[in-house]
Amino acid sequence: MTTHGFSQAHDHGHGHGHVSLQYQPALPLSRGKLCLWLFLSTEIMFFAGLIGTYIVLRFGAPENTWPAPHDVHLAEWIGAVNTFVLLMSSVTIVLCLEASKNNQAGLAKAWLLATFVLGSVFLGVKAYEYSQKFSHGIYPAQPHSLMYEKADIYYVQAVRQSLAPRYSNLLALQGQLQQEGKALSADQEERLKLYDNLLNNLVKWTELKAARSTDNLERQLAMNHLAEAIYPLRELGEAGHAQEHHYVEMLGEEERVLKREIGLVGKRADEVKSERQAKASELAAIQGDLERLQADRDKLQMQLESLQKPSESPEPAPEAALSSPLGDHLVVLQPGNQPEDPPTEAPANPEIDRLTSEIQALDEEITPKQEQLTALSSEVGLLDESIAAVDAEVKTLEGRLGILPLLKEAAHGLNHHYPDLQLPMMIPSGNMWASTYFLMTGFHAIHVLVGLIAFVLILPLTLTANRSHIIENTGLYWHFVDLVWIFLFPLLYLF
Amino acid sequence: MPQFTTMANHGTSSRHAPGHAHHGGVGKYIVVFLALCGLTAISVFVGSNQYLRIHAPATMWATMMAVSCAKASLVILFFMHILWEANWKYVLTVPASMMSVFLVLMLVPDIGRRTLNYSAERWYHAAEPLAVLDTLTRRKLPT
Q1: Which of the two ends of chain A, N or C, has the fewest CB atoms closer than 10 A to its terminal CB?
Q2: How much is the pLDDT for B121?
Q3: Using CB atoms and an 8 Å cut-off, which of residues 73-92 of chain B contact chain A?
Q4: Torsion region of A15: left, alpha or beta (phi above 0 gives left; psi -120 to 50 gives alpha)
């Protein structure tokens, strides 16, 4: 059909009432503009991919975890100002094109310069925003980023690891200076005290709670408390003030509870201590008794030994066995042996017998006393242990009590109160936020930068009508940059 | 439709007569600029409205996206002269826009719905919902 129609048209030529088809060698636009539009269509897909990924990541994040703009030091009004700046630059570049088309080269140059300045302002504001993020430890990736997804033991550990080296360095410096007969500066002294307080009271308390408590909720509460003390996530305006007020109130309540607890634990400590004292005095009494008994026994033993002394040299046992049948002879023949026999034979020497029985009686008294002594001393040892435990508990509670005024003073966050403290922060989904924020605004900023370079290259030209296509193409690119920002602004600052 | 053919003719001819600025015009651009500023103000107002944020966040987001689309349309139509371009504009923009939509849709199952498939272990390291945190940290201490 078409070939037939075509040949017909060819055969009969024109002017026979047929539809005359106009021959188009290409798309009805200049090659430069076509290339730019092709490029822009790839750019549409590029930024749609980035923005779409952001939306999908954001709404796919665990529910209610995406940080609010002020949580990550993002000011809406700065974004709005930048939007206004880019919109203005879009108008100026369009006016530049108009002027150029009208052959007003000077005016065109002025508008182009205005566009360049506005673009630079946008980048400057962006750089300021980035520096704000960096100074608060908000980086796109881990080595610098201070953001943690949740307040768990890893978070507590990170806080300790952030404080410990600074504390030990200052301590080492203090030691070194002391050797040289110098001291830390007042500022350093204050820092040392702060680190000590934070490390040994705030962090340690949290660690103890997290390690010892059997109640999961209490453990989580302790760790959340640490995170809130360092970097509270609060709402803006009145609601945020109310939350901060509530937080201070809660600290006051904790103070009361702690004081009561310290009182109770102190009472327990007193009880244990008085119990220990009673036991100790009992122990001392028994020890005295024992010593006395032992002394008595020693005396008796000595008496006994002195009585037995003369008969010490010969072996008593075989003699004794023989003594009874030959007793008379021996007594007659060897009068020196006389005292040797009585200990074995009861009636022989009543004095020795008495002493032995007395010693035996004493021994019977000593043995249970000794047993009592061992039991008592182990009891005292146990009491000592519990006293140490109670003392440690009191110390922990007092440490916690000691840091509460500081927490009250820094109710808007320790990181905010001490800007150079830079402790790890708990910002749920903060890392994902930072990744997407820096990626999108970064790519956009690169595009702005490329646009600025293009403007710099065009600025020296005389922007007469025959060069208006350059302005047109650069302008198209610049409008696209504005277009991307039109979506980025609400998505990043207002969503 | 006939309008497009004339525009097409014009598209080719405008290169030969660049000085001729029959469409656009400073007044129109200023009006568009003011409209863009007004739309931005609507976005900012909606975004900073705490009532909407708490009670109807979906409405807030939808409004802001609609405003952004309106702004984008204004920029494309007037500043980028698409309104006065020939039909080639559809050839270049429509496929790219469709590709963008598919790009985003393809991310939904694996990325958008990722937490639905999180294991218990994965949740140990996932972000904690702020609402839960609030009720926890603001729980009154036992007295």
Answers
A1: N
A2: 87
A3: 75-76, 79-81, 85-86, 88-89, 91-92
A4: left
